[in-house]
Write a structure and sequence with these properties.
Number of helices: 14
Strand content: 5-15%
Oligomer: single chain
Number of strands: 5
Strand order of the largest sheet: 1-2-3
Helix content: 40-55%
Radius of gyration: 21 Å
Low-confidence stretches: 1-24
Structural class: mainly alpha
Length: 351
């Protein structure tokens, strides 16, 4: 198998209009790691779209990918709690288990087993190309684990195990989906036409940037805690974080991401939480200086997430309900995965 070029190749993205036209035949898979606390970037970049997709698509799978979480050290008790907290957050944000499959990845063992088969179809040079591996391996003093190296293969298994046709991705995940597509084609060439080659659904939502570094996206792992606004943050925490947000020396509120990234990030967040356009937000903010505008945006965020925050707290008090949701979701996921995996076992010669 020839070593691939490390250059980025373009995936043909499926736009939302096309998806809607073929909605009855589509199956969408997406996942979220139960690490850290979900924040505004997660909500507007992924969860908000998930809620919409479950209303538009007949087959939706959302997985809490706890196997992926092990690529960095985890305390078992904290991981168990994080899985439940992530479940509570997704439910509070509008994910409805009656309209989709919401399940814990490790409760469906076919994911890990299938990953081994796909790993045997994937070259090491291809995985070494991933910028995420290079960055994370460097951050771990070049002692990154095998799991960290091969987790893109597990992602491919997550997607293909259910014969998914579409995957919502951000720009930083395009290479991962490209690998999944290539693995599907390689499997089909070797064993016959079995998997649909999944297409990307590229989010049209602008990335939410860090409040402390508007050149970087908002992140769970940002060491600057004031840069990330979590969904469960208290009103006081939200006000403080926006008050400390990096802007510039011009007081006027304008939208120009290239020259005024800090203020433009505030405008983008304001537009996202209110449902207004960027142009409308800027028009409404005429006469405000950036110091006062920070307070306006903070209040809009507080109002948007107050009912969600309240529902998260309610759900967190009912551990048994959260566990039942995950168990029911895993049962449905297994029913979908098991016959596919049995066919795979037969194709590769295990039975």
């Amino acid at each position: 198998m020839a070593a691939p070029s490390c250059g980025v190749r373009v995936i043909r993205a499926l736009h939302r209009g096309t998806l809607t036209q073929n909605i009855g035949r589509d199956r969408i898979f997406s996942g979220v790691q139960p690490t850290g606390t979900l924040h505004l970037g997660n909500y507007f970049g992924a969860i908000q779209n998930w809620v919409r997709f479950q209303e538009e698509c007949s087959s939706m799978l959302y997985s809490i990918v706890d196997l992926h979480a092990l690529t960095v050290p985890q305390e078992p008790a904290l991981l168990r709690q994080s899985i439940l907290d992530t479940t509570a957050t997704l439910l509070a944000c509008g994910i409805n288990p009656e309209k989709c499959f919401l399940f814990q990845q490790s409760q469906v063992p076919e994911h890990a087993e299938f990953s081994w088969i796909l790993g045997c179809l994937t070259s090491m040079p291809r995985l070494q190309c991933f910028p995420q591996w290079k960055v994370k391996n460097a951050s771990q003093n070049y002692e990154g684990t095998v799991g960290l190296f091969t987790y893109p293969v597990l992602q491919a298994a997550d997607i293909l195990l259910y014969k998914s046709t579409h995957v919502p991705v951000g720009e930083d995940q395009v290479l991962h989906l490209e690998l999944t597509r290539d693995i599907a084609k390689r499997f089909n060439k070797k064993y016959g036409d079995f998997f649909p080659v999944p297409k990307a659904i590229l989010s049209t939502t602008k990335k939410v940037k860090s409040l402390r570094d508007p050149t970087a996206k908002m992140s769970k792992s940002d060491p600057q805690k004031l840069g990330t606004v979590n969904i469960i943050d208290s009103p006081e925490e939200i006000v403080l974080k926006f008050r400390r947000a990096v802007t510039d020396f011009t007081s006027e509120v304008t939208y120009d991401p290239d020259t005024r990234p800090g203020v433009s990030n505030l405008v983008a967040i304001h537009a996202a939480v209110t449902g207004l356009s960027v142009k409308e937000v800027v028009h409404q903010s005429v006469g405000l200086d950036t110091a006062h505008y920070k307070g306006v945006v903070a209040e809009a965020v507080i109002q948007k997430f107050a009912p969600i925050r309240s529902e998260i707290k309610r759900l967190q008090q009912d551990k048994s309900h959260l566990e039942k949701v995950l168990q029911a979701g895993a049962k449905k996921a297994k029913e979908l995965a098991a016959p596919v995996y049995q066919e795979i076992r037969s194709l590769v010669g295990f039975q």
